[in-house]
Amino acid sequence: MTTKTVPVGWVQARSRVYSAGLAAAPPAVAVPLGEADGHTLAEPLTTLTDLPAFPTSSVDGWAVRGPGPWRVVGRVLAGGSPPPLDEDGTTVEIATGAMLPAGVTAVLRIEESTRTGGLVIGTPRAQPEWRAPGEEARRGEVLLPAGAAVNPGVVGLAASCGYDTLSVRRPPKAAVLVFGDELLTAGLPGAGRVRDALGVPVPAWLRRFGAESGPFVGPVEDTLGAHVSAIQKALEKADLVCTTGGTMRGPVDHLHPALEELGGEYVVNSVAVRPGFPMLVATVPGPDGRPRFLAGLPGNPQSAIVALVSLVAPLLAGLHGRPEPALPQVTLVEAVPGRGDYTHLALVRVDPVDRTAHPVRHVGSAMLRGLAQADGFAVIAPGTTGEPGAVVPFVPLPLLNGERP
Question: What is its biological role (predicted)?
Fold first, then answer.
């Protein structure tokens, strides 16, 4: 693999890793509805029937024919198939969701009716109190495109359309390897050692970006052999391996040599973005010969999160078969400095009403205080400065399972 480091433009890097992920998206599988949540539609969701499939009452009341008063001739409950009302002046009691008998001219709400003996009196509302066949959708209508994320609402919609299974792409499986002998996994930092601040949150971020993420492994010993062995083991089960640290070429940075030994090929090797430019994505042959992905995140905590939103999020979107993530826009309230020829990702809080972005403090590469208070990153393009009032792209941090602020 080539080892020359030429930073790729931020926009180009995102597009490049998305295309690589999309090309490697797994084949579609059919899964029962109860297992489809968190997957991605591999085919458009089309209705198998009209919705609703038959006329249904939208209220509890009386299905009447002709002018009143009406003689009660029966009752219709949900789940039944009623006989028609053949005579004017007749009615059947009807429950919400029950099938409307043929011949009905109106539905009278129960609370707006009076029953005396076998007769019902009242005035039906002018607006029909039932749902007509196809009111929500017609048979064969496309409700959601291929690439749409499946959530509980989609599962319910599919069930209402008559689906028992869905053709989906499964969530990519991700593993996390933490590099660095200086890291502690418990207790207070001291004596030259610091707490690992990425091993626990990175799997959580990956889940929010749509990966099926397991626990992290680490710290991995700072030797080439340990790095190669850890990556090989992770590749046995994961579609994506995220590593933290070792993305530079220092005396104990073994990621690049490990990738070379494993036959890796860079998709992106460093990105012209600040913070976090020494990030990378590479393909690595898996034990079965199928290419897997490795995303190298810088060791500084905020830089690692910048790498996640910059490269891993679009890569996972591609592996899901979802559209490339589109970035919303925000309006800057305060000035945000540029970073020369590099894109600047600046942590901001966003007002959900007017979409104004307010920079946060404590945003050094090694800091997480600002990140914990932020909604995402304002994107300041190379060669520009973010002036107050400027409208700029915004990279949101996912809240939960793909939700965004």
Answer: Catalyzes the insertion of molybdate into adenylated molybdopterin with the concomitant release of AMP.
Please tell me the pTM assigned to this model. Answer: 0.85
Domains, in order of start, for the chain: 11-26+171-320 (3.40.980.10), 29-50+135-169 (3.90.105.10), 56-131 (2.170.190.11), 329-396 (2.40.340.10)
Alpha helix ranges (H) inside 97-162: 152-161
Radius of gyration of the chain (CA): 29
Cα distance between residue 92 and residue 101, in whole Å: 9
What tens digit of pLDDT does each residue of 235-288 get?
Answer: 999 999 999 988 887 777 899 999 999 999 999 999 999 998 999 999 999 888
Helix axis angle, 313-320 relative to 10-23, nearest 10°? 30
Residues 106-160: pLDDT tens digits? 999 999 999 998 899 999 999 999 999 999 999 999 999 999 999 999 999 999 9
Residue of 159, 161, 49, 85 whose CA lies nearest to 94: 85
Inter-residue contact 222 to 251 (CB < 8 Å): no
The pLDDT value given to residue 306 = 95
347, burial (CB in 10 Å: exposed 0-12, middle 13-18, buried 19+): buried
pLDDT in tens, 9-27: 999 999 999 999 999 998 9
Q: CA-to-CA distance for 239 and 6, rounded, in angstroms?
A: 26
Between the alpha carbon of residue 263 and those of residues 16, 39, 267, 285, 287, the distances in Å are: 20, 31, 13, 7, 12
Structure token pair of residue 393: 């792209």
319 to 43, 71, 252, 363: CA distances (angstroms): 15, 63, 32, 31
